[in-house]
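Page 37, continued from 36.
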């Protein structure tokens, strides 16, 4: 392939500790033989390398968090590039050539919580949690959303199809649900008690942590011993699982509930995000709104 020129790129970025996003221009490396270029993390293919076979210009595609890995370790050999010690993220990493990178399904499937008839609890009805409810229902599970208040009960049941809603701060409700769930996926990234959640799962049940609290959580060991229960942690899936989730979502018409806005609204959106004023994901509509300045 003939050497191509570097690509002048325009985006918005936070350039100082204030966190305010502003226009930012930078240069991406030249397109290589196996590269695929997109408008954004989800969008239309605009350019492909000469050795790319799976995609063509005009295809609708998406980019996950991992964009590179060593391809030689045990994790890469098991199609788990997302756990590779040298995994390259789409943002905040360094690519093979030294240039910087800018830029749900897995826990249920890996831990066997995708079987019809299971009772699955979902903690945290946010960007990840609301999609988890949809996937669990598509798997044929009974789904209970677990929250600290009644605020999201109506939307959980009427809008997302959850079978039940459990308020974790109400002792009577928690006591009635003790030992009824096959597994729980915990999507909360704030520090919160784990012990009440362990009480909800059956013997040999699983509590899978997907949120990422900054401070350590207290994990009592005795409840694990008594019920042979498992507490695990999971992140995004590898390429194989990512393709599986896309195929499954397409087959079952599973989509995220999003609010699309233009680029000049992004700082207001960030303020709303801090106030939890979003149902359930913000999406920047790049194609018609991002203009070079």
């Amino acid at each position: 392939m003939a050497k191509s020129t570097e690509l002048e790129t325009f985006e918005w970025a936070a350039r100082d500790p204030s966190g305010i996003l502003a226009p930012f221009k930078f240069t991406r490396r030249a397109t290589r033989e196996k590269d695929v270029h997109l408008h954004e993390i989800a969008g239309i293919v605009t350019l492909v390398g000469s050795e790319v076979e799976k995609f063509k210009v005009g295809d609708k595609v998406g980019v996950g968090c991992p964009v590179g890995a060593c391809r030689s370790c045990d994790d890469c050999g098991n199609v788990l590039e997302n756990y590779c010690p040298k995994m390259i993220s789409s943002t905040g990493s360094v690519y093979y050539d030294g240039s910087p990178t800018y830029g749900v399904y897995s826990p249920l499937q890996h831990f066997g919580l995708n079987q019809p008839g299971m009772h699955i609890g979902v903690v945290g009805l946010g960007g990840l949690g609301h999609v988890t409810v949809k996937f669990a229902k598509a798997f044929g599970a009974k789904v209970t959303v677990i929250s600290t208040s009644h605020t999201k009960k109506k939307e959980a049941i009427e809008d997302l199809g959850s079978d039940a809603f459990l308020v974790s701060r109400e002792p009577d409700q928690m006591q009635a649900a003790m030992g009824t769930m096959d597994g729980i996926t915990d999507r909360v990234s704030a520090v919160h008690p784990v012990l009440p959640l362990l009480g909800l799962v059956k013997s040999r049940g699983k509590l899978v942590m997907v949120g990422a609290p900054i401070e350590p959580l207290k994990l009592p060991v005795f409840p694990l011993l008594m019920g042979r229960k498992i507490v695990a942690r999971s992140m995004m899936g590898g390429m194989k699982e990512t393709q599986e989730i896309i195929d499954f979502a397409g087959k079952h018409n599973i989509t995220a509930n999003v609010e699309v806005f233009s680029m000049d609204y992004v700082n207001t959106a960030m303020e709303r995000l801090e106030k939890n004023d979003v149902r359930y994901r913000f999406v920047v509509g790049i194609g018609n709104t991002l203009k070079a300045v």
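The first strand starts at residue 7 and ends at 14. Flag for discussion at group meeting. Residues 239-252 form the longest helix (14 residues).
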